[in-house]
Amino acid sequence: AELLRACPRPLAGRCLLIETFGSPLSPLQGRELQIEFVRQLGLPTIVVTPSHVGAIGRSLQCVRAMAHWELEPAAIVLLGPRDEYAEERIASLLGPGTAVVSIERPGSYDRAELADSAAGQLPLLRAIRRQVERGAGPGGSVPIAAGGAARADEGRREGLQGRSVENIVARDARAVWHPYTPLQDPDPPLVVVDAEEEFITLSDGRRLIDAISSWWTILYGHRQPVLVEALAAAVRQIDHVLFAGLTHEPAVELAELMLASMPWAGGRVFFSDNGSTAVEVALKMARQYWVLKGQGQRSVFVSFEGAYHGDTAGAMSVGRDKRFFTPFEPMLFDVEQVPVCPERLEAALATLGDRAAAVIIEP
Q1: What is the enclosing helix (H) or strand (E) of 115?
Q2: CA 172/CA 164 separation, integer angstroms
Q3: Cα dihedral angle (139, 140, 145, 151), rounded to 10 degrees?
């Protein structure tokens, strides 16, 4: 344990797996026991035991030994042919903070066989990982039922807590107005019960690849442990405070990191909560700049045809997508739109002269 503490911390997002051998009371070295080493590590613990005869006794002996040292396993894994009776008995004798699952042994331990075995049991392995990441104990349990991948999927759907999918869809139709969705005869929405990494799990068990990153906001995948922990740590200290006249170190540090990655020196960061609002702020900044410079006549924005900048009034003005924005034309201001062509852009700016406020370009 002293050697481990002396080592550098693992890279963010990486998993550290420490495998011991024998039972918790097996000797480690000298008079030190395995359980003493495990306790000093302070990491979530998974107990792995063969699923053959004696699995119940072996598992409970390990749990009792750990309890003596004030430890609780995050999960108990029965390795080998599935024994439903053993799973159910162990689960019934343990608290809700410990998951009990079965994993089949691979046919052999060569690389290809291990990869195939892991791929076939991936939902269950991910469920165990979530259990470990959330920590053991009643407050950290996740809905993994005893008995493999199928039950892990059932556990995900337990989030509905007995409410039928049809009931949720009906309530949704009465209470929710979805974006970019017609109100007349819309297709019923798909009910999501779980999201992890690049996958979204539906109430019927299907898993979808979130190829659009939930409208470009989940670029690193759903519920990435590093991001979840960073968010939780931030909220435990500061959730949300007024940013006019106030500041805090995390915001300053983020702004510095962003500026350091830019291809220019200097500048400042304005924090916005969504893309449309960011465009609105940028348009207003450009306009205010010229007003403060005494050139209030510079009020015309130039944008490219076919570009999309958002759904608020200013963003729609510089986007002008007729498929979505035609009903709102009376709300929009005039914009000079040009084809995506450098020469046409230069010509438009020359024609506008001192009436041009800014050019907005969709990345």
Answers
A1: helix 111-120
A2: 12
A3: 130
Q: Are 156 and 206 spatial neighbours (Cβ–Cβ below 8 Å)?
A: no
Q: Where are the domains of the chain?
A: 1-135, 180-226, 238-271, 272-362
By CB atoms closer than 10 A (0-12, 13-18, 19+), residue 24 is: buried
Q: Distance between CA 342 and CA 108 in Å, rounded?
A: 62
- Which tokens in the block code for residue 188? 């019923």
The owner of tokens 């349990």 is 141
pLDDT confidence bin for 305, thresholds 50/70/90: very high
* CATH class entry, domain 1-135: alpha beta
For the segment 96-117, the average pLDDT, to the nearest whole number, is 78
Give the model's pLDDT for residue 95: 65
Strand residues in 199-296 grouped as ranges (E): 199-202, 207-209
pLDDT in tens, 55-86: 888 888 888 888 888 888 888 888 888 888 88
CATH of 272-362, one of 3.40.50.300, 1.10.260.40, 3.40.640.10, 3.30.70.270: 3.40.640.10
Residue 64: φ, ψ to 5°: -65, -40
Lowest-pLDDT choice from 12-16, 45-49, 56-60, 137-141: 137-141
Cα(337)–Cα(319) distance, integer angstroms:
9
The per-residue pLDDT of the chain, averaged, comes to 82
CA distance linking residue 319 with residue 130, whole number of Å? 42
Distance CA 359, CA 284 (A): 13
At residue 241, the 3 state secondary structure works out as coil
Q: How many CB atoms lie within 10 A of CB 352?
A: 15
CB of 239 closer than 8 Å to CB of 228? no
Euclidean distance between CA atoms 328 and 330, whole angstroms: 6
Residue 56, C-beta contacts closer than 8 angstroms, at least 6 positions apart: 86, 89, 90
DSSP 190: P
Specify whether the CB–CB gap between 88 and 120 falls below 8 A.
no
Q: Please, which residues bridge with residue 197 across strands?
A: 222
Cα distance between residue 198 and residue 224, in whole Å: 10
